[in-house]
Amino acid sequence: MNHSISILFFIFTTILFCNNKSIEDNLLIFDEDKAFEYLVKQCDFGPRFPGSEGHENFKNFLIDFLIDKADTIKVYEHNINHPYKDININLYNVLARFNPNIKDRFMIMAHWDTREIADKDPYPSNHNKPILGANDGGSGISILMVLTEILSQNKLENIGIDLLFIDGEDMGRAGDINNFCLGSTSFCENIPKPEPLYAICIDMVGDKNLSLPVEKFSFEQAPWLVKEIWDLARELNYPEFKYELTIPIYDDHRALYLNSSIPAIDIIDFDYSYWHTLQDIPENCSKESLGIVGDVIMNYIYLKDNSYNKK
Q1: Contacts (Cβ under 8 Å, ≥6 apart) of 17
Q2: What is the dihedral angle through the alpha carbons of 66, 69, 72, 76, rounded to the nearest 10 degrees?
Q3: Which of 166, 111, 163 is nearest to 140 (CA)?
Q4: Which of 48, 85, 95, 105 has the fewest beta carbons under 10 Å from its own?
Q5: pTM for the whole structure
Q6: Residue 192: how many CB atoms within 10 A of its CB?
Q7: Fold of domain 30-309
Q8: What is the DSSP string of 194-241?
């Protein structure tokens, strides 16, 4: 971390600790058990990398799941050349919109595809095998699925929410950053109006030892949004959200920002022992971790809705 960033982050965290706001009463409960069930359900489809049977089957399941819950859903199909094979594949971004005509809106997004190779597995013989992606792929989507149900049953009055289920995030290889985040990059070519004012990305949040420092690109792209989320987590007594600045991570929040200029942050635990290995399975994930992140995002949504009512 360079000296100027260190000084800015010190000032930023000092403001965070000194600027407290009250949380309005919220009777909603984020169901961590259901979130974990949805994580397991995704894994029941097997690896879900683009072009696989599990990918096609889960895509169909996801659309069926969303169709009667969101106000509108849109499926974006992108036919692309596989970056490392001589084949064409389809990517599917799925957008679920609530209050689609309201201009004051923001987006929550997570990727549902899983990695085609276990290139970080401790056993070289596994490096060309696909991962199950319980945490890296399953965890963020499980939270979005529960949020879909909450939003469908507890209507927002003043703001709109977009939930983006992103495909093609994890196709890149080490040292080849241009082939990561292919789905979010393609989504930026045709973002529906009204566009979200900002976005929150959720990725790898199922770790049993959850730790969520502030990712560097997030702090650079939308420091005010980081402040709102981490402040709220602190008030909800979730120390897993840490006032520490960590390395920049090229994730869907970065691709969205670079290709659309929409401010975006990433809620991510990048210190996961089973990242890109065959052991990224439900047994190495935690429903409590899903509940922590889901509760923060759920409260954030409804607090925002209430705050717009007071304007």
Answers
A1: 243
A2: -10
A3: 111
A4: 85
A5: 0.93
A6: 14
A7: Aminopeptidase (3.40.630)
A8: SPPS-EEEEES--BTT--EEEEHHHHHH-HHHHHHHHHHHHHTT-TTE
